[in-house]
Amino acid sequence: MSSLISSLKIGTKIGNGHFGDVFLAEDEVHGKVAVKVLQRASGESDSGWAQRKVGLLAEAQLLAKARHPNVVPVYHIVEADDGESILFCMAFCEGGSLLSAFKNGPMMLTAVRRVGMEVLLGLQSLHHIPMLHRDIKPGNILLNAHGTAQLADFGLVTDELILGYGSIAGYSDHIAIEVWQSLLTSAKSDIWALGMTLYRLMHGETWYRESATPTGLVQKGGFASTLKWLPHVPNRWRRVLRKMMNDDTSARYQSADQVLSAISKLPVDLEWECEVSPARIQWVRTAKSRKIIVQWDRLAPRRHEWKAWSEPLGKGRKATLGGSQGQIIKSQVIKDLEDFFEV
């Protein structure tokens, strides 16, 4: 696809999603930009497409108000010359999305807290317009050239399609319980989705995929209490995320401002680098002149071992810090490790 459309020079494809493909482009005013092309669906009637176009183009007026350092700037929304697609022209974020970070494994808590606070600042600005995001997830948090987190793809999801879209896209656990029950979203449902996003980022895809398939679980109630935590995640983090996803909306954080205050106070003083694979989980951190290593070997569903030791960064001896003294079951490993990490 390479032509001049509505003053945009469309270049190479850089991504695709439920709503359309994304292309690099050159804009005569903003230079290098990203353009999301939303095309008329196959079999969509003339009247249906006309109605959808009106809604998308009207959205441009609201999106133009969403100017904030933690929201991806949408420069303009135009109809393509052929009338068969709508073009969202937005800033190009060189750092890509946090979906890559999620797939690579657990993010360190310092990074998760920073991302959470930056996203919440952007969410504050949207909610004050007022405007909802409705689709907060790792793939919709982009990093600009300076590494700053910015919310993207706001304004595309509506209450009419949120359940079907969320289920098809594999993000049904980002949809708050009240949305399943009433189909109505709010600032509090955005808070739920961000809570689930932060959980994903601090655990990574391998650990997350070991949990039960979320479809059908949220609407039964108590979903937040079923989350399986990596043993090093502090209890204060767990309490904040569970409150973000409380079934009772009156017991949930009431605003992005409240969540921002809570997350800003979360501890990151004992930072562990964590790598998760199906057979082994390993944590590493440096304390003074020694490296501390904790290793959980997952030998079989009911056979596990763990050990912890320290090694000098220079000369010196290895020191044993703890371990399972043989094979034990998974629940015992988790308890032992939580005691070791003093969560």
Structure report:
The chain is built from 9 helices and 13 strands. With 343 residues, the protein is α+β, with helices and mostly antiparallel strands. The strands form 3 sheets. It has a 6-stranded antiparallel beta sheet with strand order 1-2-3-4-6-5, with helices on one face. The chain has a 5-stranded antiparallel beta sheet with strand order 9-10-11-12-13. A two-stranded antiparallel sheet has the order 7-8. Strand 12 and strand 13 form a beta hairpin. The mean pLDDT is 89.
Summarize the structure.
By secondary structure, the protein is of the alpha+beta class. It has 9 helices and 13 strands.
The low-confidence runs, each spanning 5 or more residues with pLDDT under 50, are none
Q: What do the pLDDT scores average to?
A: 89
Oligomer: single chain
Portion in beta strands: 15-25%
Helix content: 25-40%
Strands of the largest sheet, in order across it? Answer: 1-2-3-4-6-5
- Would you report the number of β strands? 13
Distance N terminus to C terminus? 52 Å
Count of helices? Answer: 9
Report the order of strands and helices.
EEEEHEEHHEEHHHHHEEEEEH
Round the Cα radius of gyration to an integer and report it: 23 Å
Characterize the largest beta sheet: strand count, sense, and whether it forms a barrel.
6 strands, antiparallel
Shape: elongated
Structural category is: alpha+beta
